[in-house]
TrEMBL record:
Residues 881-891 have a biased composition (Low complexity). The lineage of its organism: Eukaryota, Metazoa, Chordata, Craniata, Vertebrata. It comes from Apodemus speciosus (Large Japanese field mouse). This is Intercellular adhesion molecule 5. Pfam families: ICAM1_3_5_D2, ICAM_N, Ig_3. It is a single-pass type I membrane protein. Residues 423-501, 506-582, 652-725, 732-813 form the Ig-like domain. The chain crosses the membrane at residues 820-845. Residues 637-661, 869-894 are annotated as: Disordered. It is found in: Membrane.
Length: 904
């Protein structure tokens, strides 16, 4: 049969050359690949396409085509898809992957041909086409289920019937990576089918990687195309199993009813997440929580022991991976060991009672009570004792020991005995004598031992003041004295007398050491100043300008007049005061000052002159007697007496006696001039003016009149001057009385503040509602505080300010809001203590001692006092009223509520 014409041959060669063209891409670090790139398929036939990439972790990928799909297989970096019923003359499938924000593409070409064209081609090459068969079946031999890492495995690819074999090429692929390629060039023309086998070393990175086989029948040298087909991919699973057994961490012993963690660990596993773990305790399977960190696996479960498992049980851990397993077994002993039972026949017993203490801890345990073991295991240990107060709060200890597989396990129990006994007041907890300095806040403590805990109440034996035990408060001299402390509980009571001494610095007041003293010439007198203070101060007086101390009685003479400096000293401080001594003496005439014979010339107009010496200054009057004009009063030159034995002119002279340097006025009194005069001849004229600002003329003395004045005495022979300090004293006024907060709940705190204006400084005193106990006062009594308010603290409080010129008071109401029933049902011991304190306080304030003022301290420069709190002063219900100095005070309602404690 003749061959084809040269023109037809060139046309067919051009057609197959066109069919053999591939779509080329630019080389990139990461690429996408489509196999086969060019395929010639009979119309209506099917084809497998393999789409792959070398991107390590592609974000997404796919195969775009308009052809029908029958099946898809997928891996991390590959995609295989079967296209069926291919009828389009030409299609271009696109393989794509998204990698590192870029899209990788590979484009292919599929063309179809009709059976008539194929027959035409067979006519052109009858001998060749009688032997040709496409690689429609490409088979990859199945891989082992698991392949150990580091060991070889075999890849086998078989393409039955494809040929001729000389045009066939087989390639084994790991994903898209070519492992081995083999062509069968030189094989006989009639040889069909082929097989390719390779040995591959399993690696960790091969785990879950797809392996496949590509068969290519290249008929292009014969003027036909390239026919390619791929096997279905097969996935390989690799693993690594260490030769060591798992490590099992578990307790040796497990008590019935308890739970303990059990941990099984194995390192060197790959892939560790795919390993299986089996944990069991005896017949009980445990359910572990498995965590993986790299190649390490940790399985943790909770083992719970029951009474049925008592004894030695196997604890088993098995780890499986890739058909291999590793296991570890340990023994765990389940035991029962109840806690010791420690009992007291009477946990709370009165003193002198017999008490039995017993301890037991199960049938196999040996118990020891207070160091004394029981006779044999399983027997109780007992102890009997006749309890005393020293056994109160005594602890008893029981130890139980159990032998478990040669190891001694221990449990213990303790209990405390309470012994009821009467109160005891010892010197350590409640000293017999206290000595404190006045002023700093202290906490008064007198504690008693006893069970139940005693309540302690300290009050004066006469039912007077009550000590606020356990509260921080100022120490005032009014607290000094002897108190009877009584401790009470349900078992009895104890009584003890304690003495409180308050030490304070000396004070020189106007009563014990007046500012002005007058003596009479020729009499006996002594300059003695009495000072208040604890310990008793020593007092010494020295005349100004001299060092001689005035001691003992004196025979008063005129030279004893003058200013003395008196100083009181004790361990707490000192006080000083100036005392002015005036010596008075009777009038005396001397011939020089008042001649016994006068001779005048009638009509000369002279006046009589008769001077006399005396103190206070005498008044001189000359009256005619027998032999003269009887009854006629002679006109004198001056009624002021000049210097003794001196009729000569003299300059002015002022001293402390004639012009005191310190003078006091009372606000509201009739305005008067300074008491300042001078001696001299002729009689000096004295003028006083205020320094800095002129004194306004007023009808009554005002506080603005206080200040420094300069008095100047002048006559024809000279001048003399003195500086005089004027102080204005005034009655007290309570300027402010406030509560913070104005309303308080039971158990809360509140404070009352009282501020007074007065000179000399006022002494502050308070009147509280009946039954209001445990009141705290500041050092100057200006603040009254209550901690832990009760219903009895609600009501009207009165603050009174008192000095030598009067008294003024104001009142304020405090409300303690809240459920009074809660207050009323307070502890019995606390209620008893409050009732006792209230009764003692009421008894004291109605006592003769308070009425007589036995606890009052006379007014001192420091304005400290201890006064009875009462309702004196003002009309009941009034806001406040001033009282005249020295007016007797009595309660407005006839009842004294409390004792006011003040400090100097």
């Amino acid at each position: 049969m003749p061959g084809p014409s040269p023109g037809l041959r060139r046309a067919l060669l051009g057609l197959w050359a066109a069919l053999g063209l591939g779509i080329l891409g630019i080389s990139e670090p990461f690429w996408a690949d489509l196999q086969p790139r060019v395929a010639l398929v009979e119309r209506g036939g099917s084809l497998w396409l393999n789409c792959s990439t070398n991107c390590p972790r592609p974000e997404r990928g796919g195969l775009e085509t308009s052809l029908r799909r029958n099946g898809t297989q997928r891996g991390l970096r590959w995609l295989a898809r079967q296209l069926v019923d291919i009828r389009e003359p030409e299609t271009q499938p696109v393989c794509f992957f998204r990698c590192a924000r870029r899209t990788l593409q590979a484009r292919g070409l599929i063309r179809t041909f009709r059976e008539l064209v194929l027959k035409a081609l067979q006519l052109l090459e009858p001998r060749f086409w009688s032997l040709a068969e496409r690689p429609d079946r490409v088979e990859l031999v199945p891989l082992p289920p698991w392949q150990p890492v580091g060991e070889n495995f075999t890849l086998s690819c078989r393409v039955p019937g494809a040929g001729p074999r000389a045009s066939l090429t087989l390639t084994l692929l790991r994903d898209s990576q070519e492992l081995i390629r083999r062509s069968f060039v030189g094989e006989p023309p009639r040889a069909r089918g082929a097989m390719l086998t390779a040995t591959v070393l399993a690696r960790r990175e091969d785990h879950r990687v797809n392996f496949s086989c590509l068969a290519e029948l290249d008929l292009r040298p014969h003027g036909l195309g390239l026919f390619a087909n791929s096997s279905a991919p097969r996935q390989l699973r690799t693993f690594a199993m260490p030769p060591l057994s798992p490590s099992l961490a578990a307790p040796r012993f497990l008590e019935v009813g308890s739970e303990r963690p059990v941990t099984c660990t194995l390192d060197g596993l790959f892939p560790a997440p795919e390993a299986g773990v089996y944990l069991s305790l005896g017949d009980q399977r445990l359910h572990p929580n498995v965590t993986v960190d790299g190649d390490s696996l940790v399985a943790t479960a909770t083992a719970t022991a029951s009474a049925e498992q008592e004894g030695t049980k196997p604890l088993l851990c098995i780890v499986t991976l890739g058909g291999e397993s590793r296991e570890t077994q340990e023994n765990l002993t389940v035991y029962s060991f109840p806690a010791p039972l420690l009992t007291l026949s009477e946990p709370e017993a009165p003193e002198g009672k017999m008490v039995t203490v017993s301890c037991w801890a199960g049938a196999r345990a040996l118990v020891t009570l207070e160091g004394i073991p029981a006779a044999v295991p399983g027997q109780p240990a007992e102890l009997q004792l006749n309890v005393t107060k020293d056994d109160d709060k005594r602890g008893f200890f029981c130890d139980a020991a159990l032998d478990v597989d040669g190891e001694i396990l221990r449990k213990n129990q303790s209990s405390e005995l309470h012994v009821l006994y009467a109160p005891r007041l010892d010197d350590l907890d409640c000293p017999r004598s206290w000595t404190w300095p006045e002023g700093p806040e202290q906490t008064l403590r007198c504690e008693a031992r006893g069970n139940p805990e005693p309540s302690v109440h300290c009050a004066r034996p006469d039912g007077g003041a009550v000590l606020a035990l356990g509260l921080l408060g100022p120490v005032t001299r009014a607290l000094a004295g002897t108190y009877r402390c009584t401790a009470v509980n349900g078992q009895g009571q104890a009584v003890k007398d304690v003495t409180l001494t308050v030490e304070y610095a000396p004070a020189l007041d106007s009563v014990g050491c007046p500012e002005h003293i007058t003596w009479l010439e020729g009499t006996e007198a002594s300059l003695s100043c009495v000072a208040h203070g604890v310990p008793p101060p020593s007092v010494s007086c020295v005349r100004s300008g001299k060092e001689e101390v005035m001691e003992g009685p004196l025979h008063v003479a005129r030279e004893h007049a003058g200013t003395y400096r008196c100083e009181a000293i004790n361990a707490r401080g000192s006080a000083a005061k100036n005392v002015a001594v005036t010596v008075e003496y009777g009038p005396s005439f001397e011939e020089l000052g008042c001649p016994s014979n006068w001779t005048w010339v009638e009509g000369s107009g002279k006046l009589f002159s008769c001077e006399v010496d005396g103190k206070p200054e005498p008044r001189v009057q000359c009256v005619g007697s027998e032999g003269s004009s009887e009854g006629i009063v002679l006109p004198l030159v001056s009624s002021d007496s000049g210097p003794r034995n001196s009729m000569a002119p003299a300059p002015p002279q002022m001293d402390e006696s004639s012009c005191p340097s310190h003078q006091t006025w009372l606000e509201g009194a009739e305005a008067t001039a300074l008491a300042c005069s001078a001696r001299g001849r002729p009689s000096p004229q004295v003028r006083c003016s205020r320094e800095g600002a002129a004194r306004l003329e007023r009808l009554q003395v005002s506080r603005e009149d206080a200040g420094t004045y300069r008095c100047v005495a002048t006559n024809a022979h000279g001048t003399d001057s003195r500086t005089v300090t004027v102080g204005v004293e005034y009655r007290p006024v309570v300027a402010e009385l406030a509560a913070s907060p104005p309303s308080v709940r039971p158990g809360g705190n509140f404070t009352l503040t009282c501020r007074a204006e007065a000179w000399p400084p006022a002494q502050i005193s308070w009147r509280a509602p009946p039954g209001a106990l445990n009141l705290g006062l500041s050092s100057n009594n200006s603040t009254l505080s209550v901690a832990g308010a009760m219903g009895s603290h609600g009501g009207e409080y009165e603050c009174a300010a008192t000095n030598a010129h009067g008294r003024h008071s104001r009142r304020i109401t405090v409300r303690v809001a809240g459920p009074w029933l809660w207050v009323a049902v307070g502890g019995a011991a606390g209620g008893a203590a409050l009732l006792a304190a209230g009764a003692g306080l009421a008894f004291y304030v109605q006592s003769t001692a308070c009425k007589k003022g036995e606890y009052n301290v006379q007014e001192a420069e420091s304005s400290g006092e201890a006064v009875c709190l009462n309702g004196a002063g003002g009309t009941p219900g009034a806001e406040g009223g001033a009282e005249t100095p020295g007016a007797a005070e009595s309660p407005a309602d006839g009842e004294v509520f409390a004792i006011q404690l003040t400090s100097s």
